[in-house]
Amino acid sequence: MALTPDQRERYARHLLLPGVGEEGQAVLKAGRVLVVGAGGLGSPCSLYLVAAGVGTLGIMDADSVELSNLQRQLLHATGDIGRTKVESASETLWRLNPDVKLVMYPERLTASNAPEILATYDFVVDATDNFESKFLIADACHATGKPYSHAGILNFGGQTMTVLPGKSACYRCVFGEPPPGPTPEAARGLLGVLPGVIGTIQATEALKFLLGAGELLTDTLLVYDALKMTFRRVSVKRDPACVLCG
Ligand SMILES: [Zn+2]
After folding, report:
1. Which one of 2, 97, 105, 205 is CB 3.0 to 4.6 Å from 60, fit for a cystine?
2. CA 200 to ligand 1 center in whole angstroms
3. Does the global pTM surpass 0.90?
4. At 104, phi and psi to the nearest 5?
5. Burial class (CB in 10 A: 0-12, 13-18, 19+), 139
6. What is the pLDDT of residues 29-44, one digit of tens each?
7. Å from CA of 128 to ligand 1 middle
């Protein structure tokens, strides 16, 4: 599809990129990405995907904006406290790029709604903050064959990995079963910039997947330590005994 003069200017730096150009921009325009979670990780991830011109972005979150979110969740501002996160997010993202079709899901991903919702997307970003959701996303993406980016952050560090179901090591190959009990949310500290680093890597992986560019972060857990300022690549393998993909 041909770009309008405005789009040619907006995406000028993409059009100059070797291997992207106008054709690649059209691929992004046709792309559909679902970001599960409009919080710390979901903020930079969705901002960059929308800025990049990904044609359709789904955002799923059942929560409302709280004051304590604003230290890291850049989709939301002080005036948004009390609004639903999807409402606040859609306004921020629309202001950034009204070209993008935004689909908002003010609900939690569940085993029952996942297959229908995931079916319409090319790539899924796990931007959630609890084990229950992470295992659910891994299972639902495996069942529907959807590639996804996993990420987790805590204190001064984080990790991320991209999964191509049936082809590369999955979340359960690496992490097995959910730990018992709920994620102790209240006890968790988090350096505010941390999701900015990891969520931006997740957006990078989504863009690379859509464009077919480079090598995805598959069979590799990228572990970030902000205090030492190191990125460590840990090789992981598909587990033949994996309950999901073995
Ligand atoms: Zn597996």
Report:
1. 105
2. 25
3. yes
4. -105, 135
5. middle
6. 999 999 999 999 999 9
7. 19
233, part of any domain: no
Residues 6+ apart with CB under 8 A from 212: none
Count of beta carbons in the 10 Å neighbourhood of residue 168: 20
Rounded to whole angstroms, the Cα distance separating 114 from 109 reads 6
Distance from the alpha carbon of residue 171 to the mean position of ligand 1, in angstroms: 6
Residues, CB-to-ion distance under 5 Å, ligand 1: 170, 172-173, 242, 244-245
pLDDT tens digits, 23-79: 999 999 999 999 999 999 999 999 999 999 999 999 999 999 999 999 999 999 999
Residue 224 domain flag: no
In a domain? residue 223? no
Instruction: Provide the residue range defining the domain that includes 79.
Output: 32-156+191-218
Question: 210 CA distance to ligand 1 centroid (A)?
Answer: 23
